[in-house]
Design a protein that fits this description.
This protein is of the alpha/beta class and about 450 residues long. It has 18 helices and 20 strands. One of its GO terms (molecular function) is tetrahydrofolylpolyglutamate synthase activity.
Length: about 450
């Protein structure tokens, strides 16, 4: 008799896990406390996978041999409290996918900021070098869906701390930790717990593997795990390292063993200090895969960036519009503002995740002419910046926000959507928010 797999949550990771479980011969049932999106419901029906929505039937959940938890379900949720009380075995979708990926090479990227850009950049680097690889995780197809429908010899996986919470054997050959900054404290309660979740990316690595991390990141240094067994490859723009990457006199040095790739920071296609770090991490990952130096240089110089991350949209009557909808925490806003060379009209707001706006106060005073708040409750932003900008307005739709920002802007200014918050008060997700922004700009 087939083992029973129950999947909690029917988004991209949940449906991907369900498809993989069916392919592997398990008896599968999917349960979602909310409404299942139409396209996912149709996929489940087409694959003859039974499901429920708008509720969790605990009696059926407790029949499971395996429970696969979607990353969006918090440990404090009633269903998880019930599951834990029964000592049921719970794993994440990336753990489930890993078990069936047949000795493929895994490159996994985590960090509070820059994950998606760095994941896409590493994938581009591999593809540009003739290495067949899939780009999966938070960036597109779930890892499980890819393993179920189109397995590859190599996977570049963007992983969040939520996905790492429930791993057991997940073992990336190359693990990348970009940074650890304050985020998701509503879920973890402390920076120490959040950092511990991030460092789980290394827990199954051996001396044959690589761990790439930012030596300049204060929280990474503070909470660095002593029991990491993989080869350490730090990157830094503040000090030289023997192995990994560093910058000296605007020259980036990427070195593993005795082989070194050198390129000018001016050659990088991505701008801003944070993207020097992202490019360093990607370059080191390329070296671990034995990619030639000229291909690393070429790829870092020609990568085009990703949608919703500092994405140029249009220039309207001399005003430039930039879509940074993927900036869902304050540190991401800091990175965006740090890149800006023109006066900024900043559109920000949404669901606050315990944000500390003090970290961007200096950049707001220096660069921001006006703030357009976009959200159902903007009190915290209003309170934080009331003494720092002369113009501030509250809006509750993207059309209203873009029109207000355009009204405040003069030729030579930039309107920057960099919300610093989750999107779920007014939008389906950050992609929906970014696309609505781009449409509203086109409608001006």
């Amino acid at each position: 008799m087939a083992e029973k797999v129950v999947i909690l949550g029917a988004g991209e990771s949940g449906v991907g896990a369900a498809l993989l479980a069916v392919k592997q011969g398990y008896e599968v049932w999917v349960s979602d406390a909310g409404a299942i999106a139409d396209h996912y419901r149709q996929e489940l029906q087409a694959a003859h996978i039974p499901f429920e929505e708008h509720k969790h039937s605990y009696d059926k959940i407790f029949e499971a041999d395996w429970i696969i938890k979607s990353p969006g379900i918090a440990e404090a949720a009633p269903v998880m409290q019930a599951v834990r009380s029964k000592s049921k075995r719970v794993i994440s979708e990336i753990e489930w996918a890993y078990r069936f990926c047949n000795q493929a090479t895994i490159i996994a990227i985590t960090g509070t900021n820059g994950k998606t850009t760095t994941t896409a950049l590493i994938h581009y680097l591999l593809k540009n070098s003739g290495i067949q690889a899939a780009c999966v995780g938070n960036i597109g197809n779930s890892f499980a869906r890819q393993v179920a429908t189109s397995p590859e010899p190599c996977y570049v996986v963007e992983v969040s701390s939520f996905q790492l919470d429930d791993i057991e054997t997940f073992h990336p050959h190359v693990a990348v930790l970009l940074n650890i900054t304050e985020d998701h404290l509503d879920r973890y309660g402390s920076m120490e717990a959040y950092a511990a979740a991030k460092f789980r990316i290394t827990e199954n690595q051996t001396a044959e593997d690589y761990f790439i991390y930012c030596l300049d990141d204060p929280y990474t240094r503070k909470f660095f795990k002593k029991n990491i067994h993989s080869q350490l490859l730090p990157f830094s723009i503040m000090e030289q390292v023997k192995q990994g990457a560093y910058m000296q006199d605007q020259q980036i040095h990427i070195r593993i063993h005795d082989d070194e790739c050198i390129l000018s920071a001016d050659e990088l296609s991505l701008r801003g200090k944070h993207n020097i770090y992202n490019s360093m991490a990607a370059g080191i990952a390329g070296k671990t895969m034995n990619i030639r130096n000229e291909k690393i240089r070429e790829s870092l110089a020609t990568f085009k960036g990703i949608e919703h991350r500092l994405e140029y949209v249009a220039t309207v009557r001399g005003v430039e519009f930039i879509n940074d909808s993927k900036a869902t925490n304050v540190n991401s806003v800091w990175y965006a503002l740090e890149c800006m060379k023109k006066p900024v009209i900043l559109i920000m707001g949404g669901i606050d995740k315990g944000n500390d706006y003090e970290i961007i106060r200096g950049l707001v005073k220096e660069k921001v002419k006006a703030i357009v708040c976009l959200g159902k409750d903007n009190r915290k932003i209003n309170e934080a910046f009331k003494d720092d900008v002369q113009l501030m307005v509250n809006t509750t739709s993207m059309k209203e926000a873009v029109e207000a920002a355009f009204h405040f802007a003069s030729p030579g200014d930039v309107v920057l959507l960099s919300p610093g918050c989750a999107s779920f008060d007014l939008f389906k997700n950050y992609e929906d928010r970014g696309r609505q922004f781009k449409q509203a700009v086109k409608d001006l």
